[in-house]
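User
Class, as today's exercise, I want you to study this protein, comparing sequence with structure tokens, and judge whether sequence predicts the tokens.
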Amino acid sequence: MSCGNHHDVPCIEIRPLIVLFIDQEISDAHQLDIVEIHFGECPPCKNQMEQESQSLLLMRNLLSRCCNEPAPASLHERLIEQTQQLHQEMAMRTETTYTESTYTEITVDGQTQIEITSKIRREFPRE
């Protein structure tokens, strides 16, 4: 697949990025720009991206309709129990510090400016 035009980035390097582009998983802004520019210059790659996007959307819709079984009650109970246990463990190992600083300034025209900064910090020590 190629439109026959020269691109800064060849189509063969863009193709593996199509699904990542569709799923918005390209975190590097420069790489995202390169892919978007390529789609603007290369109709075949853009068409493939649009077809892939439609196919993924169709598959997600089908799966969400077909695979909609409720989770067993035992799973809900285990999740709640494990979440509560984790919460208790984290509460026991958490260090909380509270810091407040006050900055007072009297300007040349006699005005008083006071700035109060508060900070609450929680630290979860690693084991």
